[in-house]
Design brief:
The chain has about 80 residues and is an alpha+beta fold. The protein has one domain. It has a two-stranded antiparallel sheet. A two-stranded antiparallel sheet has the order 3-4. The longest helix is centred in the middle third of the chain and has 6 residues. The radius of gyration is 14 Å and the shape is globular. Pfam families: DUF7561 (PF24442). InterPro entries: DUF7561 (IPR055983). This is Small CPxCG-related zinc finger protein.
């Protein structure tokens, strides 16, 4: 698994897949990680942790992602404009 940072809150996340899962033969293949890439309707893509994804509205925009902030180690929320 590779490590990166969440585009929303900045916390360190792990991304499943790639060479690290080469020898798993289906065991946890692609299911162990703390983030995923979310592609928006405008064509932009953002690596987000699961708490940030849960904090977004149903049809998020780039502005919603820019407003994400880290609240603690386990949750995220949208900041006030």
């Amino acid at each position: 698994m590779s490590k990166d940072s969440c585009d929303g809150c900045g916390r360190t996340v792990t991304v499943s897949g790639g060479i690290a899962n080469l020898w798993s033969f289906g065991t946890d293949a692609g299911t162990v990680g703390t983030a995923m890439t979310l592609e928006l309707e405008d064509g932009s893509s953002h690596l987000l942790c699961y708490p940030c994804i849960e904090a977004l509205p149903d049809y998020p925009t780039v502005e919603d992602i820019e407003r994400l902030e880290q609240v603690d180690e386990e949750t995220s929320q949208l900041g006030v404009l």
